[in-house]
Amino acid sequence: MEMPRRRTTGWWTLLCIVGIARWRTGIADSSLEAVAARGSSGRRLLAGQGGCSLEPLQVLHPGLYATVGNGNRTFKSCADFTGGSCPIAVPFPNVPCMVNCVATEAECVEYNRHTPGVNPFVDPHLCASCSITACKACEYPKELKGAPICKECFVGFTGSGGEDGRWQQCDLWDAGAVTAIMSSFAGLLTLGTLFILVATAVGGCRMCAKRTRRAQEADIAYANSMANANSIREPLLDDGLDPMQHVLHPTNYRINCLAIKQGLEFSVKSSIKRSSFFRLVRKYRSNRISLTRLICRGLLDKDTDLSDMGIGLFLFFNTQKFLIVVAFITWMVAREQQTPSSDYEKLVSEIVTHKCPSTPMDVIGTLVHESPHIAYAQSYREASLGLWLVLLFLSWGFYYYQRNFISEYDRSNQTAEDYTLRLLNLPPHITSERALQDLLEKEFRMEGKIHGVCICYNLLELPEETHTRIEEMIEHITEYDTLQNGWATEETCTQNLQERLAEDAEDFKELLQDGKLRCSGEAYVVFEKQADMVKVQDERCGIRMTAFHFGCDDGSVINDDDDGNVDMAGRLSYAMDPAVAKASKEEKGETDSDNAQFVEITPTQAEPSGLRFYEFATPEEISSWNNNVKMPIRMIIYIGLYSIVAQLFYSSMIRPWQDNLIEGAEGSGAVNLIGKIVVAFNFAIQTMVMIDVERFGKFKYLADVDQRTFLWNTLLLVITNLYLIMQECYRAGMRWDLTPPDHTKDPQAWWEWRRTWFQSTKVEGEVAERLAGLMTEQIMMLYIIGEVANVLAPVIFYWFALRAIFVWNLGGDNSKVQKVLRSILPAHGGTEELPRVTARLAERAQILVPLLLWMEYTYIVVFAWMAFFTFFLATDEGSTVCGLLFGFSVIFYIWQRYVMLWGYGKATYDTEGSYEAFSRVWGCVISFLPPISVWWTYRLGDIQEKTFAYVVMAMIFALACLVYLYGLWAIEWFIGSRYGGVDQFDGGKDPGYTQVMEKQSYSWWNLNPIYVLKTRHCPDQPGYEVHMPEVQQYLWPKHQHRKGFFELGKEFRHEEKTRWEAKNSMTSPIGASRTAVLGDDSSESGSEMSGSEEWQA
Questions:
Q1: Percent of the chain at pLDDT above 90?
Q2: What is the Cα–Cα distance from 463 to 448, expressed in whole angstroms?
Q3: Which residues pair with 970 in a beta bridge?
């Protein structure tokens, strides 16, 4: 109903902008003379330095000059032309065929930075270039016979290689220091590495020399006894060498190598592509496809589906295809722009090679007339608007396609989200899933229709040591289940694992009895059928809080113990004593009205894998303050840090070259070295942003983490790259006005404009080339190197670190090197400090990194924005930059879709949140195009005032963003909400949540660490009871009979190794292998597999 009003508001805004523009243009036209007068005053000051006119002369050949116009009169020298008042000729910047006449040699460098002096050995009346780079005052002493010396260097450079005022060269003031420091650092690093290697080798030789034949015999005897030993603790050897204290003991060496290899194998098995590959293997073994088709489908990734990647990853791959189309269209538009004519290129090549025309002609006039800059301006002014319209409708169409894809996926695919409702504002004393399920079944009148409930506990409010202890308990359960299922051996596991599990059970019971573990206020109700969930969602919006008070007037909890007394409430939050209850409420800042509120019932909008169970229970006001105030302040600090570093680099190492129009900065070793360090610092800042949002944001949902990280990282990269681009654009010699002043009103200003015309066009071309180089650098450093650093580098680094510690014993036992290397390993209950590494620690250290969608979307936004920025410049480099974007988008898609799926860890992106955030930001990217039309209107002189042009550009940008957003809102309104009604089922029958859980392998309970611990250690703890046994057996998939903690991509570890290998073997027929290995259970498992495959189809 509000859509027409929004459109009307947009049109009124557009009409207002047009009216203001016409009014301001009229004012500008009426005051044109005043503007021209003000603009020419500075030029008159330059022209009046020596009292010489700016009227140029054309060089016909050495010793002969001609005027431009006025009959083309010829003169032998500037003295002849000016009557002796201005005898020295200064070539135009970058145009040696044209000269101005000046009075003194000191004025040479003021008119042309490339001619800092007069060489009397060549021409005593001509300002000449100097072979000493960055020299401001060049002199040619007679005693040196034509060899130059530098009396003064430009600002930012220091003289060297001679006496004071007689320098042989000019260098950046800190280039030598930078080179020396970096060389010293590289030398120290090399020496340190050699020292560590030598020390390790010497230590190993000494230890080998100490070992005797008796020690070797003891090793053999111990190895033989290991088969029947119940403990992996080894006795002291005869030579006093304790295997538990030395890494290089042969037994430790063998176990460490085995554990590191096993950990790496577990990580490789969790890759996204591996799951689809084994699905192909099962089809091949069942003779459903041939070996050739198996290889082709595996290479073309034809069998990777939503169960392997999740909807978020599929949306991302669609976005990559969309980027390819956008990049191709932009590239074609850029290629169609005006190119320089052959006459212009011929004249420019002659000027560059100092081949001046032998007959009088208006060289500058010809350059201006033949230059493609005006054509570029007119073409870009029209092309930017046309390109925006094309990309706008293309973006709307793509968004419509994606929204339809999401809706169709949600209707035709069943996920845990489709069977679940979320409860908010639950009382803290609700800590028993059994009691909560009974209450909800009675409240909803759905006895037997609720599959189970999942309570999120206040883990974030617990002390840090308790938090760490809970993680250790989960690690012990995971390691024990891996051992029992045959995926690990006892010697590669944590020592005394069963004793540690017993200690964990006692400690966890203590935690529950202390009453510190409470409900975070959020829980999830899972229904067996979707129709029941939809019915509750349509009929109920909440539950009265009194329903959760279990019979006490003051809101206390009644515990069904044998005595009928309730002390549970006193240990939790609501005591039976009214005074105690009131004090507890006041301490928490609660009121009676707060407790009288409803428990809200809302759609889930998240998968179990999308919850961060360790981050629950943050008070909402604290969370809002942390995420909306403290986090932006930290992000601004990060951006400020990079800006300071970039500004220091620019002002000290780039600006001296640019301000003095000196070429050669790209060839400076110090500049290139520090430039790479600045880019690396930018990458480090991105990493800090990622860590800051993930660790300090305290978000409960992975989708929120991805969206916030994407927004802040994109803002960081846009600001930093915009800063670099602005530094390049606003430099000496850059001129934005393409129309000359009125010759009749200000001839001196007109001559000055023509004198610097070619220089300004050359500088603008250099800026465009630098922009192309900047984009290439960003693609290389931020994407290619960043991709390697994020995906491959962690695995390679930790593999090296594990071997350096537990195999090579780098640095020796208890050395500082060992302590540093061990400190970077993941915490694992103190086992990382022992001379043996466990397979679980090696697995956690070498884990495959999941695909970070926020980072990939950031690259799409930033690189597309950089390509659009080239439309601000009058250059043919736009096609180069847009071609780079097109090439990047194609390689980007192929690399991510068909290669890196083998290297990314499996993760289910349960929501489309990252794409939704990208779709909003993308509107800002394409809305960057309409202001370009205003920009070229200003450069062509149709808008006279720069400030007004900037204001109009900002308003047009905001209006374009609103138009884009209005389109998205209209599409969402047309498609409707995705959270309505029951899905479309194959055969018209709801498979039920149990079947969904079997397909996904995860549930709300095997990902909840507290529920796993309660199930394993104390399922019937009063006040914390888990579900009834008849319900409990359906909360884990059937093959996860040990009811352990689930990790995405590690489904295999929950199944017996022999059973899993039989199902995924390529060497034997499927029926025979399953029957031989599984026996009587094979028929049951076979029916499960066929049912699962049929349901997936």
A1: 13
A2: 38
A3: none
